[in-house]
Design a protein that fits this description.
The structure is a single chain. The protein has one domain: MFS general substrate transporter like domains (Growth Hormone, Chain: A, Up-down Bundle). By secondary structure, the chain is mainly alpha-helical. Belongs to the major facilitator superfamily. Spinster (TC 2.A.1.49) family.
């Protein structure tokens, strides 16, 4: 019902905001201290607060808000640092392959979250159990980090040992990043991806359910998790499109690199620009054909997912090793602050402002019109990646031939 959507709308920004503001802290630490230990502590803390949040009583909603906010500690610790470890273990084509495997986790993990969360909640007749599954997986991740992963030296694999790469002050790092046009423009392009994925993650299942009610395929529902089956289908689509999108993006980029050094931003731009019309068609066709809607969502999300690994690779080769964690952190801050931290709320506000009555017709129609915003944002994001292509060669050469000015 509407109260459930309000609950999710409230919890999601709390998590994203804590994640955003903690990312620069872990970016600073990740460029200076043992990254494996920092990630292990972060993930352990994340697992504990996730488990704790499942036991909060109804009358203490603020405790649930607090624990969901603290989950951002774990997210910020590994999302800022893990790609930099991969960058220090592999170079060039192999690095891109390893990053693609790492970034499968984003769409696949979020898709499995829909599936496991909705099914566990239904089987246990209690949504709290959905939060008790993941801490065990977090424990496994910590053990693998501590006993399997080795801490590489920063920049060692690029034949530039760590003692030749002097640390600079944090303010100097930020100033250098702000002048790195490829980093700045690709970050804004990725923000568009975050905006669209955040909007779809929260609103797509609800929209699909309202479309089914509008067409008479489903009975109206006002209590409980009305869109559970839609969440299951949308989750499965997210998993499959994530795998296809990330893999195809990397393969297309690899082939195009033999023709142009601007291949990566061009593939990212193509992914966003191609996703826009399919997302538009998915939203418009919802009232005519459910099958067509799912097909267009599938195609739109596949093209959207082409960006994940490539954007990470761009950051790693246009930024010097001693600034990569900081760069990752600020890409997270910008993309979430202007992207998925506010996009679900914005879609909801626009939908409410367009709704003339509380009828099922207007519940569907207002949400349909507000979701069309995603297509326009995707086009803008594609424009940022096209602009990135203008600077990518110069910024990459500057990073590869970086000579520190002093200690």
């Amino acid at each position: 019902g509407r109260s459930c959507v309000r609950l999710v709308s409230c919890l999601f920004p709390v998590f994203i905001c804590s994640y955003m503001f903690l990312a620069p802290v872990f970016g600073y630490l990740g460029d200076r201290y043992n990254r494996k230990i920092i990630m292990s502590v972060g993930i352990s803390f994340w697992s504990l607060v996730t488990l704790a949040s499942s036991y909060t009583p109804k009358e203490h909603f603020w405790v649930l808000l607090l624990t969901r906010g603290l989950v951002g500690v774990g997210e910020a610790s590994y999302s800022t640092i893990a790609p930099t470890i991969i960058a220090d273990l592999y170079v060039k084509g192999k690095r891109t392959n390893m990053l693609s495997i790492f970034y499968f986790a984003i769409p696949v993990g979020s898709g499995l979250g829909y599936i496991v969360g909705s099914q566990v909640g239904q089987l246990a007749h209690d949504w709290h159990w959905a939060l008790r599954v993941t801490p065990g997986l977090g424990l496994i991740a910590v053990l693998l980090l501590l006993f399997v992963i080795k801490e590489p030296k920063r920049g060692a694999v690029e034949a530039r040992p760590e003692h030749h790469l002097h640390q600079t002050s944090w303010l100097m790092d930020l100033l250098a990043l702000s002048k790195n046009y490829s980093f700045v423009l690709s970050t804004f392009g990725f923000t568009a991806v975050a905006f669209v994925t955040g909007s779809l993650a929260l609103w797509a299942p609800t929209f699909l359910f309202r479309a089914a009610v509008f067409t008479g395929e489903r009975d109206p529902c006002v209590e409980g998790n009305c869109a559970a089956s839609d969440s299951l289908i949308f989750g499965a689509i997210t998993v499959v499109t994530g795998i296809l999108g990330v893999a195809s993006g990397v393969q297309v980029s690899r082939k195009l690199r033999t023709r142009t050094p601007r291949a990566d931003p061009l593939v990212c731009a193509a992914g966003l620009l191609l996703s826009a019309p399919f997302l538009y068609l998915a939203i418009v066709f919802a009232q005519a054909s459910t099958i067509a809607t799912y097909v267009f969502i599938f195609l739109g999300e596949t093209f959207l997912s082409m960006n994940w690994a490539i954007v990470a690779d761009i950051l790693l080769y246009v930024v010097v090793p001693t600034r990569r964690s900081t760069a990752e952190a600020f890409q997270i801050v910008i993309s979430h602050l202007l992207g998925d931290a506010g996009s679900p709320y914005l879609i909801g506000v626009v939908s409410d402002s367009l709704r003339k009555t509380d009828s099922f017709l207007w519940q569907f129609r207002s949400l349909q019109l507000s979701l069309l915003l995603c297509s326009f944002i995707a086009v803008i994001g594609g424009g940022f990646f096209l602009a990135t292509a203008m600077f990518i060669e110069a910024d990459r050469n500057r990073a590869e031939n970086y000579v520190p000015s002093g200690h």
